[in-house]
Specification:
The complex is a heterodimer of chains A (241) and B (397). By secondary structure, chain A is of the alpha/beta class. Chain A contains six helices and ten strands; from the N terminus they run E-E-E-H-E-E-H-E-H-H-H-E-H-E-E-E. The two termini of chain A are 17 Å apart. Helix content of chain B is 50%, strand content 17%. Chain B contains 13 helices and eleven strands. In chain B, the strands form two sheets. A nine-stranded mixed beta sheet of chain B has the order 6-7-5-8-4-3-10-1-11. The two termini of chain B are 50 Å apart. The chains are: A alpha/beta (241), B alpha+beta (397). At the A-B interface, helix 1, helix 2 and helix 3 of A face helix 2 and helix 11 of B.
Chain lengths: 241, 397
């Protein structure tokens, strides 16, 4: 068995560098370990897919790497910043550099597609309003929704909503993109389109991608394939696809 | 300076974001309508209660305001317009010793029984008696009719008196001669004036002191209830009051005209429950508004909790999300106040025509109600914000 972080020397330049990460839920007797000594490193521009049975800890890993949860033991470095012991404010600042795509699209119901994407672009403080709006439009065109700028989420199909969510995540110019089963709610064709788009745009931006998926049809977009079981992370043999 | 200000404004304009608070409110029209109806209702309630309160106090000095006087003499036993005690007229004459006093006018003031010329029922009417040659009224429409009162038994009737006094104004305008009885004596209505009813009196009439003596034979000719003093132009009323107090014995009271009005208002404010009742009513409106706005904002935050959590996951700070809720509160306050203000204006007009009380939208009350609505909305927003603490971005994956 080969450790996923065989390329240890490169961790300084890595978008994510995780070492000896363990995590528990609950307290006392109910305390249950969900992650065990996880080691992981992802370089900028790399697309990594993570698979595994449900309840194995994939989502927990995603929330820890996404600075959404306090790290309990081990080390998680995002762009060189240590998350272990990082405060609320520090984690919030780091989250601005991470794009997140959820299983549900999690769009704001009261905003149009364009406004939803601009909520992402609005995090870029150095740009003027018009520049941010133009960027939002640009991103929607990039995901093929140039004709649906003014539509509210409930007027869009599932695939279109997920593409808006991708545009929103990318509009904040993230250095890391975390995606949790982005194709779960989509049919095979639109699922395929969404991941291809994600991969192409991430490549263009030099953005690292960590995607959790159960969908066997999209595994081929990955540069690297990881498998998680019972809180442990394994490299999956590319031949075993 | 100006260009720097413009630059700052341009900077703020450039760095503006999606107006999330506005969109959250306006994209849910039903909820917004309910919220605005609630706030407007609370605002209208406050406008009405405070309007009634101030209007009633203001109405109590309708007659007081008529007089062209700088300083007035009263009996120390006088409590209010319905409890006017008399004092010797010579005290008023004594004030002429002061160099600033340029004119004095004696006035009789009492409640007498008026017989409705149509229904023949009686009702108390506030009666003023003055010397028709004295220029005691500020309102030229009263002064111009004053010479009519030189005829014995002639009176001027307040056309804004309550209808229970009979259709005097209507009859007079038709050209009929209106005659009736006051305190059992025959009088004739010579003309109409426009004053308005107050707490103490449902109607008013003005007559000469000579006629007054006939209606009130028990009142000695040398006694009056009110002494009006006019000062030289530019004289300081407060200084004159101080001098006259030293000059006159303790059986009269010297106050400025403003003090005279204040005395009346204080009487109604302190010796009746009116102030308390209406302030309480306004307070209830405030509480009802708070409950409605809190309910609306709390359920709005609860409904959008996953969306707020998403924004936090994207890197939005909690304070900036709290700001969204605060702006929702602010928008609700402004949007709810406008209909309350307009409805308040309309209802005031209705009250004025229905009760003839001087209820007007004065800027101070408009500001007070706006402040209360603002406190109501921002306070409720502050409480609803606690719900945002439940938004956990780790839960949304």
């Amino acid at each position: 068995m080969r450790s996923p972080t065989a390329n240890d020397k490169q961790t300084a330049a890595a978008a994510i560098a995780v070492r000896d990460l363990s995590h528990w839920y609950g307290r006392g007797d109910a305390r249950r370990q969900v992650l065990q000594d996880v080691e992981l490193s992802i370089d900028p521009g790399e697309v990594v897919l993570l698979t595994g049975p449900s309840g194995c800890g994939k989502t927990t890993l995603l929330t820890l790497v996404g600075a959404l949860r306090q790290v309990q033991a081990g080390s998680v470095q995002l762009f060189g910043s240590e998350l272990l012991g990082a405060g609320r404010r520090e984690r919030q600042q780091l989250r601005r550099r991470i794009g997140m795509i959820f299983q549900g699209h999690n769009l704001l119901r009261c905003l149009t597609a364009e406004q939803n994407v601009q909520m992402g672009a609005d995090l870029l403080a150095d740009l003027g309003y018009r520049a941010r709006r133009d960027q939002a439009r640009e991103w929607l065109r990039a995901v093929g929704l140039g004709d649906h700028l003014g539509k509210l989420p409930h007027d869009l199909s599932g695939g279109q909503k997920q593409r808006v969510a991708i545009a929103r995540a990318l509009a904040a110019r993230p250095e890391l993109l975390l995606a949790d089963e982005p194709t779960a709610a989509l049919d095979s064709r639109s699922g395929r389109e969404v991941v291809d788009l994600l991969r192409r745009l991430a490549r263009e931006q030099g953005c690292a991608v960590l995607m959790v998926t159960h969908d066997p049809r999209i595994l081929d977009v990955a540069d690297r394939l990881l498998r998680m079981e019972d809180g442990r992370l394994f490299d999956q043999d590319p031949e075993a696809r | 300076m100006v260009s720097r200000g413009l630059q700052t404004i341009a900077g703020i304009w450039r760095s503006r974001r999606i107006p999330l608070a506005w969109l959250l409110l306006t994209r849910q029209p039903m909820r917004l309508a309910v919220a605005l109806a609630g706030i407007a209702f609370a605002g209208i309630l406050m406008f009405m209660q405070l309007g009634f309160r101030d209007g009633l106090f203001e109405a109590s000095v309708t007659v007081h305001k008529l007089f062209d006087a700088d300083v007035v003499l009263l009996s120390p036993r006088t409590t209010s317009s319905i409890g006017m005690a008399s004092f010797p007229r010579r005290r008023l004459v004594q004030t002429l010793a002061d160099p600033d006093v340029i004119g004095i006018s004696p006035v009789n003031w009492n409640l007498l029984l008026w017989r409705n010329p149509e229904a023949r029922t009686t009702r108390s009417i506030l009666t003023l008696g003055f010397e028709p040659d004295d220029p005691i009224f500020l309102d030229p429409s009263i002064s111009s009719q004053a010479r009519l009162l030189q005829n014995r038994g002639w009176v001027l009737f307040d056309e804004r008196s309550r209808p229970e006094f009979g259709p005097v104004a209507a009859w007079l305008k038709q050209g009929r001669t209106v005659e009736t009885e006051v305190s059992g004596e025959r009088i004739r209505v010579a003309g109409l004036v426009s004053l308005g009813p107050s707490f103490g009196a449902d109607g008013n009439m003005i007559t000469s002191r000579e006629t007054y003596q006939r209606l009130m034979p028990s009142s000695p000719p040398g006694s009056i209830e009110l002494g009006l003093i006019r000062l030289r132009p530019g004289a300081d009323p407060d200084a004159a009051v101080a001098r006259l107090k030293r000059l006159l014995p303790g059986d009269v009271r010297v106050v400025t005209k403003a003090g005279f009005e204040e005395l009346e208002k204080t009487y109604w404010r302190t010796s009746t429950a009116i102030g308390f009742i209406f302030t309480l009513g306004a307070g209830m409106g405030f509480v009802v508004g708070c409950v409605i706005v809190y309910q609306i904002l709390y359920s709005d935050v609860s409904d959008h909790l996953p969306e707020y959590a998403t924004l936090m996951a994207m890197g939005y700070r909690l304070p900036s999300l709290l700001g969204v809720v605060a702006r929702e509160g602010l928008l609700l306050a402004v949007l709810g106040y406008l209909p309350a203000y307009v409805a308040g204006q309309g209802l005031y007009a209705l009250v004025r025509s229905g009760t003839r009380l001087p209820v007007v939208m004065d800027p101070q009350r408009a500001l007070l109600v706006f402040t209360m609505i603002l406190v109501m909305c921002l306070g409720s927003a502050g409480l609803a914000m606690r719900r945002l603490g439940d938004a956990d971005p780790a839960e949304i994956f």
